[in-house]
Amino acid sequence: MKKPVPDYIEEVGSHTGPVDATPSASTLASVFCIPSVGGSLGFLINGAANLPGPGATSLPGTLALLP
């Protein structure tokens, strides 16, 4: 069975508003590609992890300008 190939990846977020000295909640997000692993054991790792493929991560936190 052939694996489906994604042709579109979307990250959804919201803006923080104006950035000033008052801390405000924010989340940084990123979408990226994870390449396949080479070498003699690459076929085992690639098969187990379903590589190559898409990846995504996010980092929540607070943002404020320093005076």
Topology summary:
Elements: E1 24-34, H1 42-49, E2 53-63
Antiparallel strand pairs: 1-2
Provide structural commentary.
The chain has 67 residues and is mainly beta. It is built from one helix and two strands; from the N terminus they run βαβ. Strands 1-2 form a two-stranded antiparallel ribbon. 0% of the residues are buried.
Number of strands: 2
Helix coverage percent of residues?
Answer: 10-25%
Helix/strand order, N-terminal first: EHE
Distinct helical segment count? 1
Average residue-wise pLDDT: 80
Largest sheet: 2 strands, antiparallel
CA(first)-CA(last) distance: 59 Å
How are the strands ordered across the major sheet?
1-2
Strand content: 25-35%
Radius of gyration: 18 Å
Anisotropy-based shape: elongated
Structural class: mainly beta
Give a brief description:
This protein has 67 residues and is mostly beta strands. The protein is 12% helix and 33% strand. A two-stranded antiparallel ribbon has the order 1-2.
